[in-house]
Amino acid sequence: MATTNSGEEAMPAVRSVKAKAVFPREVRHSESQNVTADLNLRRAAPTPRKLRVIGRDASVRLEQEQWDDLDRICHEIGMTINELARRIEARCHGHCGLTAGLREFVLSYWRSAATRPQDDAVTRVQSVLLGLGGSPQGQFSTMVLRIQDRIAPHLTPGRVRMMADLPALDLGMLGAQARERWGGEAPWEKGEDFIAAQVLRNLVSPAAVAAVA
Fold this sequence. Notes:
Blueprint: H1 25-44, E1 46-53, E2 56-63, H2 64-77, H3 81-92, H4 98-115, H5 121-131, H6 138-151, H7 157-165, H8 171-182, H9 193-203, H10 206-212
Antiparallel strand pairs: 1-2
Helix pairs in contact: 3-4, 4-5, 6-9, 7-10, 8-9
């Protein structure tokens, strides 16, 4: 060590080091937890979305996780969320509202996925829809519900308006005329005209007709 003229040892030169500002690990962990909690709260808060259901537009509020589930299911079955919502609304007609029906559908879908993993998405959706709003009573009721499920996705405002223009007829003639108006896109066969007309009368209510008039 160097000495001064007075014989005292000289102190070594001290290099100036600029200290880095470092957050303690505990602070970073706490902030991360806060961000995660905030994101979870946002996803848990009901998010509104407009759906075009049977003859009308409906504003529905669901948690984002449920919207994500519905979008995923629609992707798997190759159907838009509006088409799926019409199927759910038709099945819950007279039993519960659209929002409650959507919630029940999502829960039942994942319950079915856990208990019957061998089913594909299309089969699972059909099975879940059949169980919404009470189980059908007898073979004829089951047949009506299956035709209803085929018709409901196609009940756009334009088709509801078309049904409103048809004259009051007996069910057989009403089904035949509706099928002719739909052309090759009608989701039922000639022998199903009577049941299809029953379904259409049940689903195309005066309120739905008024909404698109």
